Amino acid sequence: MTTHPVRRLSLGALVQGSGGHIAGWRHPDGRPDGQLDFAFHADLARTLERGRFDALFLADVVAVWGHQLDSLSRTGRAEHFEPITLLAALSLVTEHIGLAATATATYNHPFHIARKFASLDHISGGRAGWNVVTSVVPLEAANFGFDRHLEHELRYRRADEFVQVVKALWDSFDDAAVVRDKATGRYYDPAGLRTPHHRGEHFSVRGPLNISRPPQGHPVVFQAGSSPTGREFAARHGEVLFTSQYELGPAQAFYADVKARAAAHGRNPAHVLVWPGISPLVAATETEARQRLGELGDLVHDDVARRLVQDNIGDLDLSDRPVDGPLPDIPESNRSKSRRDLLLRTARAEGLTIRQLALRFATDAAVAGTPEQIADHIETWFRAYAADGFNISFPYLPGPAEDFVDRVVPLLQQRGLLRTEYEGTTLRENLGLPRPAARDRRLQESGR
Questions:
Q1: How high is the pLDDT of residue 3?
Q2: Fewer CB within 10 Å: N-end or C-end of the chain?
Q3: Residue 20: CB partners within 8 Å, gap ≥ 6?
């Protein structure tokens, strides 16, 4: 009989100023100015910390958040803070919650990323997390002088080397190498310096990094990839895995698969946490919760519905298609393949129109119901080994986040699923993840 280690439920919050729903900014109780309001973000971070969340997560693209500027003008996603800057500021108004952000491995250099996240880890006292992505939004490529993204497999191969270099840079100094000894005049011990001297297919980086080893050793590595290539990448590098899973059976299969892949790479599967995304909407009754969810759907403009589908399934133009008509044939795409395939299977199987598919996409992670129903959903998935935790996106803000913390979190605590106090001072400690040891000097200097 297989035995499992003691598990703890972990929670992350995907924070977007106007909320996760595409029309959240239009909700009567939403904050359309939230994207660039620091006080708003600070209040939200403190609310999440009160709810004993493990991490606050900022998704990011290095472009306006969309594919076409005309439809983007009808969403609240045309502007957002640079995430590392915002997280550094939030570290000063919080004490425990982890601070994670997306940074692309396609349009950055390893030295930049290593330095930024090491700095955030020091500033926050060991609470930084890096979500590694390879970029899928076409407008990102154009901002860096390219007509289109690199091919899917090449992006991941480049990202694999990217992460290895970043980790080597984080290990530039032994933990005790920086001594700052005034009496001897020695700032750091040369014997503790581990210059990477990396030379690979995509990067040549001498090092060392110009900041001492982060408090966590390495900031926690987050990753979101469900394609076979993405799963292998996650199994090698990811410590917290975001995933889009909406049914228990497939979620269990994904969970088992990535844990097995991690084990095949010599990793402890318990140190690879799986976080499906959910978007909870709490109300006194399930009927009221679903009514509120439907009201959000009514706020989605036709142009946004077309673009929402188009942005997620392929390089095609739906602008002249009737929004209440069927999907056309979809060509192959260089975008995120797992998400695209899931959407197409759903649309074909259920005969969805463009509008219906858009609204399905806008609410695919929704869990609308009473506090007890939402707590039941979380507990069922956790105990069934479909999730170690959840990446929670609130449909609009701040109300649904406050409702979750005030009405669902106490139920999870009463059931013994969620902490009542933080276990440690770093993100790793609270997630139950080990602190990485520094790499062996011989491997470091060989560039491996």
A1: 42
A2: N
A3: 14, 279, 393, 394, 395
